[in-house]
Design a protein that fits this description.
The chain is mostly helical. 47% of the residues lie in helices and 9% in strands. The strands form five sheets. Strands 3-4-7 form a three-stranded antiparallel sheet. The chain has a two-stranded parallel ribbon with strand order 1-2. Bound molecules: glutamic acid (GLU).
Length: 490
Amino acid sequence: MKKVRTRFAPSPTGYMHIGNLRTALFEYLIAKHENGDFILRIEDTDQEREVEGAVDIIYDTLAAVGLHHDEGPDVGGDFGPYIQSQRLPMYKEYADKLVDLGGAHYCFCCEEEIQEQRKVAESIGKAFKFDDPCKHMSIEEARERIQQGETYTVRQTIQPTGITAFEDQVYGRIEVDNNILDESVLLKSDGFPTYNFANIIDDHQMGITHVVRGNEYLSSTPKYNLIYEAFGWEIPTYIHVPPVMKDEQHKLSKRNGDASFQDLLQKGYLPQAVLNYIALLGWAPETEQEIYTLDELVKVFSIQRISRSGAIFDIDKLTWMNGMYLRAMDLESFHALAKPYLTQAIKRDVDLLSVSKILQQRTDILSQIPEQVDFIDELPTYDNGLYIHKKMKTTYEIALTALKAAYEALSALEDWSKEETIHDLLLSLPSALELKNGQVLWPIRTAITGKPFTPGGAIELAHILGKEETLKRITVGIEKLQMEEVNKNN
Ligand code: GLU
């Protein structure tokens, strides 16, 4: 069997679209599942859409998620150049050859002539299909006019009879009547090919065996097959994949303000979690397993399990999965990722590794970190109602008793360096006060954080905040609760 070769062929638009990355992943998995090659080709023939630095974003994205390409502009290979704008002479040569073979013709029509026909079609309510008068010109005459310096395009020639059919690996048999197929421009007047031509020349010349791409290309594929046939080339295996959707009706798209891969990283999602999540968009494993490494995906991926219908991108599911990845890390790796967020949020001199330790089990995305630890620098103003917790069975009175006892015990503690000592000390209080653990610990945590939800409990947080700050905050709590007493008595 021929070695499987797939390609990722993005247009450099300045960001990595989630749907594109998902297609790249499928292309990679299909190749690697068969020990094949995964090739990167840059499709930059639409020069107007070209964005500076966009190619680097493509390299960076593939590297970040570990989709290493075997051939491409940066790594080389035997089938280069891998950037379309560097392949122009080749497209021209093949376009001329296709004209000789009868699969295309030179066209000298200007835009006005095309629009003229469009108007007529519209006025009689017919679907527009350009009927090119140049089709009937002899090749000699056309080449003579080109010699004279006339501008021209190369347009596909399609005999309007018969049908063209092919078998798509996902969508099954696709069949179209040739008379509805557009005779598209293949080579533009500036010498650049259109996608309609370049994809065929490149996929053939690069030895691509499996063309994996979005299903929006499904309806044009018969046209492409006619060109393969005109050249006498082998038609590749087609795997058209369903779109990634924002909701039932709309595709996910950066243009509509939906998140790109770069946006997700910026929000604190991990590249591996994103990759894992998008593997499940439009593909389903045979088992219930949801967490996969890339190598595991390579093993279990199968074309048969790619779905035909669009898959909705569910940010909550991705967030959940990202949390799974964060929790599965060792503390050092988590800390390395959390540190930039911690230093951004915490200016006070505290042991950041201890903060990471309490955060790791409670963080789904890294960007949640600053908000989770904002109380460390400064005690927020809070309402006394926070001391009342139904389940913990606290009252203002109990809270005040607990804080006073905690203050006394903690102020006598010399060595604050071990969490364990603080733990033992605070846990000796409830029995001495004839209270439940929660009745003591809840008020302490409330006093030192001023928040109803925090990562870590009273003991861990007191240890992180240090003796001076902890006592200061408990004092504030005591004063606030005493005011409550005064108000009650008045
Ligand atoms: N440049 C095309 C795109 O970005 C590639 C389509 C294909 O994979 O053939 O949509």
